[in-house]
Amino acid sequence: MKQNHHYLYKFLLGLMFGLGLIISGMIYPAKVIGFLNIFGVWDPSLAFVMFGGITVYTVLHFLHIKKVDTLLGYTKSLPLKTHLDKRLIIGAILFGIGWGLAGYCPGPALVSFGTLGFEAVVFVLAMIGGMTLFKLTSK
Description:
mainly alpha, 6 helices
């Protein structure tokens, strides 16, 4: 596969991902918070979105588990760490708190950022600030 086609494939996959987030409603914080509100008026629809994503990933993972390269010809880059450490646990807790409070996680937030809605812009700027702060303090 020629290298210059990779950008087109990446663009199309990103577009498909963004459209999937829009169609599923994952870019709407109220929808996400409704899913997380298991003690109130619970909206289980995002469970189907997650189940669909997990199913596609699992099938493709097992079809390509022994291959060294990705479908686009890149060398696979898998995580080397197999244990939980304090940084991972704290990061997961902070991610979960942020997701629950804001109703955004990074992918949907970036898609929503395209609308230039106030909440999406604030979330993305805070996310960039948090990543910058982490990078500066983790050395």
